[in-house]
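## Example pair
The file below holds two records. Each record gives the amino-acid sequence first, followed by its C-alpha cell line.
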Amino acid sequence: MALVVQKYGGSSVADADGIKRVAQRIVGTRKAGHSVVVVVSAMGDTTDELRDLADQVSPAPPGRELDMLLTAGERISMALLAMAIANLGLEGRSFTGSQAGVITDSAHGRARIIDITPGRIQAALEDGAIPIVAGFQGVSQTTKDITTLGRGASDTTAVALAAALGADYCEIYTDVDGVFTADPRLVPGARQLPRISYEEMLEMAACGAKVLMLRCVEYARRYKIPIHVRSSFSNSEGTWVTDAVAAEGEAMEQAIISGIAQDTKEAKITIVGVPDKVGEAARIFRVIADSGINIDMIVQNISAAATGRTDISFTLPRDDGHHAMAKLRRLQEEVGFDSLLYDDRIGKVSLVGAGMRSHPGVSATFFGALAEAGVNIEMISTSEIRISVVVDQNDVPLAVTAAHDAFDLGDGGETAVVYGGTGR
C-alpha cells in the first residue's frame, strides 16, 4: 500500500461542513490501506482577513510578528481537522510547521525550505495516527523564529514532505477538478487535462496558472514526486503531473498546446534613455536583484544612432513595483537615464505546450487570433515551449478566450466546474 501526502486548500476547509467532508476523505484513504500524511491551509479567507487586520493596526507590521499572526490560520484548521478525524474513530495528530521539522532560512514572509526532519511525523505514522501538518510555515534555522513561505506555499510544504518521507505521490486537493486548458473561471468550456509534464506545468505556474504554485512544481520535478491534482468536492480522476511519459494505450504524439495561462498581477517599468554602454543594464538589474525582486520579461530597444541611448522595459510582480521604482530613481543620476515610466494596468497571456517545438506556425496562429480580437501586444517573450505576450489588463479575458478558440482547446460544450473559493 502507498504512502500518500494529501494537501487541502483553504476552500476545501472553509467551514465546519468542509472540514468534516475532508476528514471523511482522509479516513477513506486510510481504510483503503494507505498511510496518509495531511497538509492543510487556513480556512477560506482567514489569511487575507488576518493580513487586513494587521494593516489596520500598523501600516508596516514587522515581518516577524506578521508571520506569527498569519500562521495562526493553519493552526486553527489543523486542530479542527484532527478533531473531525477523531470523531470518525481514528487519531489525527496535528503539527505546526516547526513541529513537523520544516527548517527554513530567516526571510520572513518569503522563507525558503532548507531541510525537513520529519521524525515526529514518522513516529506518528508508526503509532497509527494520521499526521496533520500546518502548511505555509516553518522555523528559521538560525533565529528559531516562526517563518512563512509565501502565499500558496502549502503546496510546497506538501511536496517537500512527500520528498522527505519518500511518499509514493502527493495529492493536491483544490476547488477545481484538475488542471485545465485555461482558467475555468475565465473560460467555462476549458478542457481538463488527464496528465501534464513537469516542464509544461512549470511554465503554466510561472505564467500565472493558480492551480499549482511554481515552487511546488520545481520541488516535485527535482525529487520526481508525482502530483495528483484533484477536487475535494468531487470524485473526478483529476490530473497527474509527472515526467512526460505517455500512458498505456495513449498516442505518443504530444498535443501542440497544453494550455493557456494569464497573470494580471504584474506591472511594467520602462527606463527611458539609457546610455548604450557596456555594463549599464547590469548595474540596473543588479539593483533590482539586490532588492529581492524577480524580473519576468525584458525588452531592450535598438540604440538610436543619433543619441546613443536605448529604452529598457521589464515586467515584475505588481506588489514590488513601487519599491523597484524607488530603487531606480536613486540610481538615475549615477546611470544617467532620462526618465522612468510605470504601468500597472497590464496583463500577461501565455501559450504553453511541449508540442510547439515541432510544429511551425504556432506564433502566427496565436498572434493572428489576438489581432482578430482587436488585442494590441505590448511585449513578447518566448521559450521552447511557451509564448507570452503583455497586453492591456482589460484585454486579458478576450485574449485568453481568442487563443483558446484558435487552438480548439475546448471540451465540446461541457462546462468546467469551480466548486468553491472567493478568488481573494
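Second record, same layout:
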Amino acid sequence: MPEHDPSLRGPHPVGVIQTRIPCAGDPIDPRRVLPTEIWYPARPGVRERDDGAHPLGLPHRATTDLTPLADAELPLVVFSHGNSGLRQQSTFLMTHLASHGFVVAAPDHVGNTFDEMMALESDEQRREVHLRARSQRPSDIARVIAALVDDRIEADRRPAIDADRIGVAGHSYGGWTALKVPALEPRVRGVCCLAPAAEPFVGRRAFEEGELPLSAEIAALVLAAEDDVLVDRHESIEPLFARLGDHARIDWLDRADHFHFCDGVALLHKVHENTPRPGLPRPPRPIAELRREDETHPWLNERVARFFLDALGAVGARRSTGDAAA
C-alpha cells in the first residue's frame, strides 16, 4: 500500500532537466534525436521556484536542476504523448508522480509532434507520418528506458533508477504506444493508458499476435473519459480493454472529453470544439458542460499515482521481478 496519500502532492520537491536521446538504431531515420524531459524527486529542504518551461506558457510545478534525491534507487515511469502532442503535454501528472518518488521521463516523438504535424500540407503527408510514427513510437519509449537504465544518461543530474521497477504510461496514440512497449522491453511491470487509441485510429492490426493480452505479471490500468468523441467508448476503449487480460482495470471519468488528460484543459478543448473532424460519432460537448480542470486533474493524479505506487513501489521499496503485479 502507498506510504502517503496519492491524492495529495507527494512529500518530495520536484526537479526537472532536459536531455536528448539518440535513436541510432532507428531503421527509418537513425539520425533522429528525441528531446526528453525528466522529472525527479529532489533532496528535501529546497525552495521550489516552479520555473520549468511550458510550451503553452502554463504553470509547470517543477524547478530546474535541483539536487536529486540520492539515498535510494527509484522506480521509473516513461510517458508517451498523443498524436500531434508534446512531451510537456501533461506536466500536472508528471510532476505529481515525481513528487511521490518516481523518476518520470517523456520524449518528443520526433516527426509526430504538434509543430511538425501542423506544418504538413496534405492528407498524404499526414498518412506517411502516421505510418512512420506507428513504427517508431514504441521503439522511442524502449530507447528512453534503455538510455536511462542501461546507458545511465544524465546519471549525475537525476536519481538512480531501479531496473526492476519500470512502468510506462501514455495518452491517446501514446496509450496505444504504451501497450506496445512490453513486447520490446520485458522489464516493464506496469502500463497505464489514458484514453488509449486502438484500431479505429491506429489502423488494421494495431497489435501483433502475442502482444495482447498483457502478461498477468504486468499491472494494467485504463482511464477513459465518458464524453470522449475522438476515442469513443463503444468503438475503441471497450473493445481494447476486453483484450488486455482479466487482471486489467478500467475507470471512467464522467463529464470529460479527450483533452481532460492534458494541461490547459479549457484551451485545448476549445480548439477541439472549433476544429471540424469528419467521422466523429457526435459533436464535442461545450466546455461549460464538462468538468473543470481543478476537478479533473486531482482525480487523475490520485488514480495514476496509486496505480504506480501499488505496481512499482514507493521510495525505498524494492520489488522483485518475480512478484505478481498488484
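Notes on the second record: Residues 223 and 251 are 5 Å apart (CA to CA). The domain at 14-312 is CATH 3.40.50.1820 (Rossmann fold).
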